[in-house]
Amino acid sequence: MSEPTQPLPVVERGQGELDQFGQSGSAASYKALPTPEGEHGTGRFWSSRRIPAALVAIVLLGGSGILLYDIAAVRAGHTAMHWRRALARELAERPLDNVWVLVGAGVAAALGLWLIVLAVTPGLRAVLPMRRAHTDVRAGLHRDAAAMVLRDRAMEVAGVQSVRVRMKRSKAQVRAVSHFRRLDDVRADLDAVIGETVKGLGLTTTPGLSVHVARPGKKG
Q1: Which of 49, 60, 128, 159 has the most Cβ atoms closer than 10 angstroms to its Cβ?
Q2: Residue 219: per-residue pLDDT
Q3: How far is CA 194 from the centre of its chain?
């Protein structure tokens, strides 16, 4: 079993020919593959939001339970709880421009906005949706898994010493260190190999590709 590749220091340079430091970079973009006949694309996966949902459920359950208990106690002839009498008094006496009233309103508004954002956004940004041939089957590829596939393919290119891959939804960034061969030749091979690999991942939207190649940093 081979040891994981350790990235070496990379100094990025602008596009163009080799400079005095012997470094080179390139960026290539690829259009999404056409969906074969009978296949259908799929949107992003929606997160179940278990933790926020559990927190909201616990708060609502506890608050409503205490409030219902206090109301039932008042109906039975007991006095209301101190916190409810104090809250009613504070709300009746404090003006709306009071600092604590404004702070409480701001916190409530922020929590409400957070819940709205969670409700209308899909989440699961780390899962890239894949094309599917059947409407009842959905598949997704984790970004780390996609990055590992690209890294393994990049390491097969002659002259590549180490590779770092960062997979995003719209772009795959590949940074390679080459210890022999001309950098332009290594970059061209990486463009071809990684480009075909990205297309072969079967993603709904094929991300663009950015490849940067540099020489190893000097030791000491």
Answers
A1: 128
A2: 64
A3: 22
Cα separation of 115 and 112, whole Å?
Answer: 5
110 Rama sector, left if φ>0, alpha if ψ -120 to 50, beta otherwise: alpha
3-state helix, strand, coil in the chain (%, to 5): 40, 15, 40
Other C-beta atoms lying within 10 Å of the C-beta of residue 90:
12
Q: How many Cα atoms occupy the beta-carbon half-sphere of 49 within 13 Å?
A: 16
Look at residue 22 and give its three-state secondary structure: coil
For residue 32, give the H/E element and its range: none
Entry field: residues in the chain: 220
Q: Which residue has tokens 């459920």?
A: 57
Q: What are the two backbone dihedrals, phi and then psi, of residue 85, each rounded to the nearest 5 degrees?
A: -65, -40
State pLDDT tens for residues 60-109. 899 899 989 888 988 888 888 888 888 888 878 888 888 888 898 899 89
Confidence grade of residue 122 (pLDDT, cut at 50, 70, 90)? confident
pLDDT tens digits along 17-65:
444 334 444 544 444 444 444 444 556 777 777 788 888 889 889 989 9
Q: Tokens at residue 131, please?
A: 């094309």
